[in-house]
């Protein structure tokens, strides 16, 4: 996740005269996609990828940074109501940044291994937990299709129990809101902005096709890091 520090100078005038205070607020910037916008076609159009990345993800980051700077000010002033008021903006926009940062890495062009089934220990645990990869895909697609409104469907690893689970979150809630031990292996964005330009209202078709560009290699790397 790209991170940069913006240093801003604040001028304060106190009873003893003029002084300056230097403050650092960590802010975030849009991560590059690891492939071209059109590289996931025909599963996901280049137009969708470009708007999704440059407009939607960027907006979450812009609003997250703004909320973090407001939070810094509110904490500095000891303004408890303002701190509380910012929590929903931080959850929504911070979640949007976290979720999309995972989502881009969860996808890969077919020529770079997108859609290739999981191998090694993750492949085995998928069979153990779900019976087969096909059964897992069907279950995730069913959960994603049934999710009301906007949200995400996840293949989660419970790193304490060493088990896989399918979870859904609403809006931009990140997976960690469903449990502190849950780590996202795969996340599918089921907001309309992720598919509507190409699939219109037929979310199940988008869910069916996204597996053709799923980056199981990334999921396996995360799994092996958490369950060595
Ligand atoms: Fe999205």
From TrEMBL:
One GO term in the molecular function aspect is: superoxide dismutase activity
- Chief localization class? mitochondrion
Q: Which cofactor does it need?
A: Mn(2+)
InterPro entries in alphabetical order: Fe/Mn_Superoxide_Dismutase, Mn/Fe_SOD, Mn/Fe_SOD_BS, Mn/Fe_SOD_C, Mn/Fe_SOD_N, Mn/Fe_SOD_N_sf, SOD_C_sf
Cite the entry's keywords alphabetically. Answer: Manganese, Metal-binding, Mitochondrion, Oxidoreductase
Give a single Pfam family match.
Sod_Fe_N
The keyword Oxidoreductase is annotated on this UniProt entry: yes
Q: Which GO terms describe its cellular component?
A: mitochondrial matrix
Q: Where is the Manganese/iron superoxide dismutase N-terminal domain?
A: 27-108
Subcellular localization(s) per the UniProt record = Mitochondrion matrix
Tell me the ranges covered by the Manganese/iron superoxide dismutase C-terminal domain, including all copies: 118-221
EC numbers: 1.15.1.1
What this protein catalyses is: 2 superoxide + 2 H(+) = H2O2 + O2
- Which EC class, in a word? oxidoreductase
Entry keyword annotation includes Oxidoreductase: yes
Binding, Mn(2+): 52, 100, 189, 193
What Gene3D superfamilies does the annotation carry? Fe,Mn superoxide dismutase (SOD) domain (1.10.287.990), Iron/manganese superoxide dismutase, C-terminal domain (3.55.40.20)
- Recorded coiled-coil stretches: none
What family does the entry list?
Answer: Belongs to the iron/manganese superoxide dismutase family.
Q: What does this protein do?
A: Destroys radicals which are normally produced within the cells and which are toxic to biological systems.
How this chain assembles, per its entry, is: Homotetramer.
| Name of the protein in question | Superoxide dismutase
Gene, per the UniProt record: LOC104249630
């Amino acid at each position: 996740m790209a991170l940069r520090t913006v240093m801003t100078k604040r001028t304060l005038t106190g009873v003893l005269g003029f002084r300056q205070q230097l403050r650092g607020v960590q802010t975030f910037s849009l991560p590059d996609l690891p492939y071209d916008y059109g590289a996931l076609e025909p599963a996901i159009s280049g137009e969708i990828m470009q708007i999704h990345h440059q407009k939607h993800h960027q907006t979450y980051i812009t609003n997250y940074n703004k909320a973090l700077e407001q939070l810094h000010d509110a904490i500095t002033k000891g303004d408890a109501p303002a701190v509380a008021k910012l929590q929903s903006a931080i959850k929504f926009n911070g979640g949007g940044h976290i979720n999309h940062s995972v989502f881009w890495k969860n996808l890969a062009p077919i020529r770079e291994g997108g859609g290739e089934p999981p191998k090694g220990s993750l492949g085995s645990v998928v069979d153990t937990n779900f019976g087969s990869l096909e059964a897992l895909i069907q279950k995730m697609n069913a959960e994603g299709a049934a999710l009301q409104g906007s949200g995400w469907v996840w293949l989660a690893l419970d790193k304490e129990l060493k088990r896989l689970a399918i979870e859904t979150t609403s809006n931009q809630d990140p997976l960690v809101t469903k449990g502190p031990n849950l780590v996202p292996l795969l996340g599918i964005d089921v907001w309309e902005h992720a598919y509507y330009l190409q699939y219109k209202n037929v979310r199940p078709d988008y869910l069916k096709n996204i597996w053709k560009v799923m980056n199981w290699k990334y999921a396996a790397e995360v799994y092996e890091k958490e369950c060595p």
